[in-house]
Amino acid sequence: MFLRSTFRPSLAAGAVLSLAASLPAVAQSISFSRIGRPIIENRLKAVATDNAARLEALKKMFAQAGCTGDQLTEQKVKGSKLPNLICTLPGKTKSAVVVGAHYDAAEPAHAVVDNWTGAALLPSLYQSLSKNQRNHTFVFVAFAAHDQGMKGSKQFAKKMGKNVKAMVNLDSLGLSPTKVWVTENNAHLTSFIAGVAKAIKVPVTGVNVEDVGQGDAIPFNERKIPTLVVHSLDTENHKICQTEQDTLDAVDRNEYYNTYSLTAATLAFMDIKLD
User: Fold this and answer.
1) CATH code assigned at 82
2) Could you tell me which of 195, 168, 184, 17 has the C-alpha nearest to residue 97?
């Protein structure tokens, strides 16, 4: 989750996000393989009760999704016993889109929403995009040490360099219909997800969560990299995060699958529309 526990969310201007692109143009640009709901749910259910086991579960899921060999690497994180896990989908160019989610938790036994929901989608998003040749290189990163001051995402953002054109961060999904943090997001990326949402008929709203604290998109923002933060928090449901209620039962499977579909389609659309 985002680092602080207080929460006073603000509804983004135009809560149901407006469409900036024409629907025919959006629909024609979306090309991805939709993973079946049973696979998405099984990966969600593979949650482990300690961070090292979560890392191993993610390795297995990436391998099942087809990310193996040199495509799947680890990055040591200074000050952390556990590494970042990186799956790279090569594109026609070295211009990269980073898709990230932290897999660690202060209390892993009660941290499904925060943030196994985000980390467990990374292999499926890789699998969805890997069936087609991509213009951009997509880099899927499961960040370590989020609860130690975002050490994993800070180190990765520093090492990644100039080739990153956008970063999509997934955090605390499946509690409600898909939300985006508008004031933290790049305006163009927000318009992309809004357009895709209307094209595939999946709802998305803007809920800003400044008072929750900082998330793993922050190190990329600090380097002037456009970001898109996807979450599901609102005034009430955030209260379960980092509590004993943060279990599999808290996740709305329909909304979780909708968030997966919307994110996969948006990444495919970004691959076409990003400079």
Assistant:
1) 3.40.630.10
2) 168
- Tokens 């929460």 found at: 7
Is 141 within a domain?
A: yes
Strand spans (E) along 76-190:
84-89, 96-102, 137-143, 164-170, 178-180
Distance of CA 82 to the CA centre of its chain: 20
Domain that holds residue 33: 10-230+248-273
In whole angstroms, what is the distance from residue 179 CA to residue 156 CA? 25
Name the pTM for this structure. 0.91
Residue corresponding to tokens 């099984």 = 42
Q: Give 66 or 246, the one with higher predicted confidence.
A: 66
- Is residue 242 within 8 A of residue 6, CB to CB? The reply is no
- What's at 117, amino acid-wise? T
Assigned domain for 4 exists: no
- Which of 117, 119, 93 is closest to 176 using CA atoms? 117
pLDDT tens profile 114-172 = 999 999 999 999 999 999 999 999 999 999 988 878 898 999 999 887 789 999 999 99
Q: How many domains does the chain have?
A: 1
The DSSP 8-state label assigned to residue 238 in this structure reads G
Please check whether residue 242 lies inside any domain of the structure: no
Q: For residue 66, is pLDDT > 50?
A: yes
Under the banding of pLDDT at 50, 70 and 90, the label for residue 213 is low
Percentages of the chain per state (helix, strand, coil), in multiples of 5: 40, 20, 40
Tell me the average pLDDT of the chain.
Answer: 88
Q: At what angle are helices 253-273 and 122-129 packed, to 10 degrees?
A: 50
Span 246-268, pLDDT tens digits: 899 999 999 999 999 999 999 99
